[in-house]
């Protein structure tokens, strides 16, 4: 694959912050897609409870192109990723070489999945820059792009929403009909911004938008052409990228300063969309990566698998959460499942052992990740407005399958702050709930947009990225 970087508009900015996990979380940051603690909580923030198009909207700006990345908020900047059509036609599919033989070869020895057409796509066996076309059609699949796209990282002024700088970085296949060509979210260590565009590259930018290094991992071929979605995970100076797809899946750890590979391990997994979770077990950092075959814990310094566990279903999307030495993982496609593991000191295969202390086989989310807020965990059923709340330590339900007000479909993950839970629906409605073992709605808010991206909370503001606009919601 050949990726050419385009011009950059720099108007200037200065940022600073510590590396992941080096200090207590700041009330003014949302440094990665699930927030400072990677559980959806902004512990020190106090955003509004109520808003509308005419109330508590500090600013609203149109974001060009297409993107589902959660805004990254740090100091005076709000950073988003987007894919903008260039107006130039993509290469003619009829002019491309037939790679069906290679694709058939890639299917050998790979088990059929529970659904879909079972097609497997090779990685790295097409000419540089070649775009995968109409293979892998599945329900909800968006057609392959008919024109090339410019992949942008945009930094906005936090107070006004005006553009501070913009970097243009030109997809090989389509995405799910509800998906995006720029679905991954950026992450920062205060010196760098790491922007993952999947098959079109991983970019490391400085805080002025200059590209310091880039990596090309090849072209993904995702299940049913649903597109890509996993975001990079950052721990200290190590960046972890999960590359599960219908070809040769792997996980790789990079030096965040240079982009140099520290280790790479093959994964016996089909497409997944979950972002790795970094946790500590004593002096050892572990990258927790869910998969349909196995949940695996990779030692961050070597890539060695410390333990693994089965139990999840197909199409793993939700990210894990950690609660007092316990991990809770979910999937919600055709085999809905929850697996809770006591991971401290664990080694080997944990499947069927007393290390697995809590399981569910229904009511779990397909796309949205859970919200772990103190001693409560909230999760939706599939992609619907049906909410459950559990005790994460025991698996005891506080309430189950409670229908949200005016919300039907949900792709965004719940977030929490100031004793409240915020759940954004696809139709523009957001429910604000009291963080409590009982179900209590504090407010039902509506905006004129569609929200498939998880909100970001920083300071006393909540940032909501719609399909058309990015909102900064704050009391005036």
Outline the structure in words.
By secondary structure, this protein is mainly β. It has a domain of 218 residues. 2% of the residues lie in helices and 37% in strands. Strands 1-6-5-4-3 form a 5-stranded antiparallel β-sheet, with no helix packed on it. The longest helix is centred in the first third of the chain and has 8 residues.
Descriptive key words:
476 residues; five-stranded antiparallel beta sheet; 34 strands; globular; mainly beta; 1 helix; disordered N terminus
Helices and strands in order:
Blueprint: E1 8-10, E2 57-62, E3 72-74, E4 77-89, H1 100-107, E5 147-157, E6 163-168, E7 187-188, E8 192-196, E9 202-206, E10 211-215, E11 233-235, E12 238-243, E13 250-255, E14 261-266, E15 277-281, E16 284-289, E17 295-299, E18 305-309, E19 321-323, E20 326-331, E21 337-342, E22 348-349, E23 356-360, E24 371-373, E25 376-380, E26 386-390, E27 397-403, E28 415-417, E29 420-424, E30 429-434, E31 441-446, E32 456-458, E33 461-465, E34 469-473
Parallel strand pairs: 18-22
Antiparallel strand pairs: 1-6, 2-34, 3-4, 4-5, 5-6, 7-8, 8-9, 9-10, 11-12, 12-13, 13-14, 15-16, 16-17, 17-18, 19-20, 20-21, 21-23, 24-25, 25-26, 26-27, 28-29, 29-30, 30-31, 32-33, 33-34
